[in-house]
Amino acid sequence: MATAASAATFSIGTAQTGRSLSPSNPFGFKSNSQVNFSGLKAMSSFSGNETCAALRATFAPKAVKENQNRNHILQPQASYKVALLGAAGGIGQPLALLIKMSPLVSDLHLYDIANVKGVAADISHCNTPSKVADFTGAAELANCLKGVDVVVIPAGVPRKPGMTRDDLFNINAGIVRDLVSAVADNCPGAFIHIISNPVNSTVPIAAEILKQKGVYDPKKLFGVSTLDVVRANTFVAQRKNLRLIDVDVPVVGGHAGITILPLLSKTKPSASFTDEEIEELTVRIQNAGTEVVEAKAGAGSATLSMAYAAARFVESSLRALDGDADVYECSYVQSDLTDLPFFASRVKIGRKGVEAFIPTDLQGLSEYEQKALEALKPELKASIEKGVAFAQKQTVTC
Ligand SMILES: NC(=O)c1ccc[n+]([C@@H]2O[C@H](COP(=O)([O-])OP(=O)(O)OC[C@H]3O[C@@H](n4cnc5c(N)ncnc54)[C@H](O)[C@@H]3O)[C@@H](O)[C@H]2O)c1
Q1: CATH code 3.40.50.720 region(s) in the chain
Q2: Rounded (10°) CA dihedral 254, 156, 186, 207
Q3: pLDDT tens track for 18-57
C-alpha cells in the first residue's frame, strides 16, 4: 500500500477563477448548494433548479423545511472516505480522477487486481484535498475497505460486440460476490454503489451476500443506473432543443435493454413528444450502451460517460451523507413501488441511505409507458431471480 498526500488547493471549474485561495477556504468560494464546482454538483448543476424545486414541493411541502434545504451549506473540509474497486479499468481510471476532484473526499482508496499503483501515483499529483492510496490484490482488500463511507464497484469485464449484459453474468457475478463479501466484513455501514453489469442481477447478488453476512441494509445498496438518466437528459435536450442543464427525465425499471424505461411524460421542463419521437427516444436510450460498444468496435463499453454518471452519483451520496436534505437520484434499489423486489426509480437519499421513494413518478403514466412497464417486468424478474439463485448457491464465511 502506498499513500500520497496532496496539497490543499483546488482550482478547477469556474467558481474559483481569479481568486486567491487560503488554507481555511481552499476552494476559494462560498460552498453552498447553489454553487457549481467541479462540474460534479448534482442537483443544481446536473438536474436543474426547476426539477429540484418541483421535487421539493412534492416531497417536502413545509416551507420551513424548504428554506433549510435551500440553505444547506456543504462542509468545505473534505471528510469522506471513498473506495473504488476496479480502479485500474476503463471506468475506474476516469472515475478515480473525477472523485479526486471532489472537495468532500478526504481519502480515495484505489483497488484492483493489477496495474493500480501507477493510476494512484498519477492521480495523487492532482492538487485536490484527498489522499490517494493504492491496494493490489485480495490480500490488500481489507485494508482498502476499513473505515470507508462509500464503496464504488466497477470491477469486472465489460461487454464486447455481440455480447448481452447477461453474457457477462458468470464472470461478474463471482467478482461482485467476493468484493461485497469483503465490504460486509470490513465496512458494513458503507453506501455500496454497484456498477458491474448485469446490474439487474449483481445488485440482488450483493443483497443476498450481505444478508448471509447479517449486515444487509437495503437503504445503502445502490445499483448505479445514473448513466440511463444522463443519456435520457442529453438525447431529449438535443431532440427538443432544450437547455441541457434544465432537463430531467426519470428513468425507471432496470438497467438493461427493455428494462430501461425513460418516463418521457415526466420530463422537466415539460415537453410534448409525438408517438414517433417517444418510440425513437425510448429505443435510443435503451440501446445507447450498444451504440458505444459498437462504435468502440471491440475496445470495450461506455467508460467516460459512465465515469461521469458514477461520479455524479458519488457526489450525490456524499452530499446526502453531509446532511444535504435535497438529494434525489434514480437508482436500482430494493423497492416496494411495484411487485418486483428491486426496481430503479427516483429516490431521496439522506444520511442513512434511501429515505423515500417518489411514487408520483409512476402515477399518471402514458399508455406507452404503462405498456412498457408491464412488458419489462418478466425480464427484470428473471434477472433478479438469476442473481438470487446464484448467491444462494454460494457459501460465505462469516
Ligand atoms: N452500470 C453501468 O451503467 C455500466 C456502464 C458501462 C459499463 N458497466 C460495467 O462496468 C464494468 C467495468 O467496465 P470497464 O469498461 O471499466 O471494464 P475494464 O475491463 O476496463 O475494467 C475492469 C477492471 O476491473 C478489474 N477487476 C477484475 N476483477 C477484479 C476483482 N476481482 N477485483 C477488483 N478488480 C477487478 C480489472 O482488473 C479491470 O481493471 C463492466 O462490468 C461493465 O459491463 C456498467
Answers
A1: 80-224+386-392
A2: 30
A3: 222 333 333 333 333 333 333 333 333 434 444 445 545 5
* Average pLDDT rounded to a whole number, residues 366-386: 98
Residue 102: which residues within 8 A CB-CB, separation 6 or more? 38, 40, 78, 128, 130, 311, 314, 315, 318
Residues carrying CATH 3.90.110.10, the chain: 227-381
361, 263 Cβ separation under 8 angstroms: yes
Which residue's CA is the nearest one to ligand 1's atom 38? 89
Check if 45 has its Cβ closer than 6 Å to any atom of ligand 1.
no
Burial class of 275 by CB neighbour count within 10 A (0 to 12, 13 to 18, 19+): exposed
What local confidence, expressed as pLDDT, does residue 396 receive?
A: 64
pLDDT of residue 159: 74
Cα(87)–Cα(93) distance, integer angstroms = 6
CB atoms within 10 A of CB 261: 26
76, pLDDT greater than 60: no
Q: Is 125 part of the annotated catalytic residue set?
A: no
Nearest CA to ligand 1 atom 29: 155
Q: Is the CB of 260 under 6 A from ligand 1?
A: no
Q: Which CATH number fits domain 227-381: 3.40.50.1010, 3.40.1670.10, 1.25.40.10, 3.90.110.10?
A: 3.90.110.10
281 within 8 A of 274, measured Cβ to Cβ: no
pLDDT of residue 20: 29
| Protein residue whose Cα sits closest to atom 17 of ligand 1 | 158
C-alpha cell at 47: 438536474
Atom of ligand 1 nearest to the CA of 195: 1
Q: Cell 421542463 appears where?
A: 269
Atom of ligand 1 nearest to the CA of 114: 37
Pick the CATH number of 80-224+386-392 from 3.40.50.720, 3.20.20.70, 3.40.50.11810, 3.40.250.10: 3.40.50.720
What would the mean pLDDT of 187-205 be, rounded to a whole number?
Answer: 97
Radius of gyration of the chain (CA): 20
